[in-house]
Amino acid sequence: MQGPKRPTINDIARESGFSKTAVSFAFNDPSRISEKTCQLIRETAERLGYIPDPMARNFSLRRHLSIGFLLPQVVQYSLQNPYTMQVIQGIGTVCETHGYTLTLIPPLHKSITEAVRNAAVDGLITMGMQVDMDIVSVMQTRLLPYVTIDGTPDERMPSVNIQDEQASYDLMNLVLSSGHTEIVVIALSNDAFAKEGEADSVPSKRMRGFNRALSERNLQLDEQNILVCECTLEDGKRMGKLILQRAHRPTCVVAMSDIVAIGCMLSFKEAFVQVPSEISVVGFDDIDEAACINPSLTTVSQPAKEKGRLAAEALFRILNKEELTSAHMEIPYTIIRRESLSDHQD
Fold first, then answer.
1. Cβ-contact 251, 182 below 8 angstroms
2. pLDDT at position 153, please?
3. Are residues 13 and 91 located together in one domain of the fold?
4. Considering the entire predicted model, what is its pTM?
5. Gap between the Cα atoms of 4 and 82, Å rounded
6. 15, 87, 97, 124: most buried, per Cβ within 10 A?
7. CB within 8 A of 268, min separation 6: which ones?
8. What φ, ψ does residue 108 adopt, rounded to 5°?
9. Does one domain contain both 128 and 40?
10. How confident is the model over 139-197, as pLDDT tens digits?
């Protein structure tokens, strides 16, 4: 049994006395008709219960009216990372002001390239992308404008970044200046864009910064003191438990992500190991939770929402064929020392 028939443009034209072209303009390009005509047509549509077909409207406009955000990892990891969620908030606020939706695009069939090929969006924002990657050629073939966050600065690819290597160097210097030399680093696994060992990936940049600070004091990390995990609370807790199982524990854990650092701290708390009197912990990002956890987390503060906002505003300027003031936007970071890092005496 068929349900009630949906009203069409033909029905609105017949009821209102205006042409189908005028009805189409009322929904897709109101500037082409008078304000009074537009109002009468829309009132008729509302009375009939008409809702425009978004696909037909987008086809008429030759736009999807949606911006795509390529998730750096599969959904269950990406959406568990508060840093990524804050970036999404920044992008979303700009999309809202422009009347666009925001489409989250995870890897499709484990392929980020396949996801880009099939994305029904007008432009893309990515995280951690380099200019020589396969997905760049796909976006160029599709004539899709794009901006990257935490990617490689390049004149051919607009980007928003902080100086990840220098920030990591400064963070490790703070740890070393506090007297810590027995250190475990918790690195991040590469995201969906990066190739194994990619020199310009965020994890690689941060590790270079850590190593530079260590080498200046004639120190280096053994392989056993570099752990790698996904950027989630649960993986952070798992890392904390692994560290507690060691016969000789480090005096400080340096994590490349706040949410991982917080996971470690929760595992330490469950085992009645005191932070920072028995073991110090530092993170990276300054997510909202970093200041709320007890003890509060020492970290690198980078403005995730601002990164998202700047990337989205740059993308809309490209869509509107406006000139960018700079292809590469570098924003400042700060080191915030809180309670989770204590001075260590040998």
1. yes
2. 67
3. no
4. 0.79
5. 45
6. 87
7. 240, 244, 274, 275, 278, 279, 281
8. -105, 125
9. no
10. 777 778 889 898 776 666 788 999 999 999 999 999 999 999 999 999 988 654 455 44
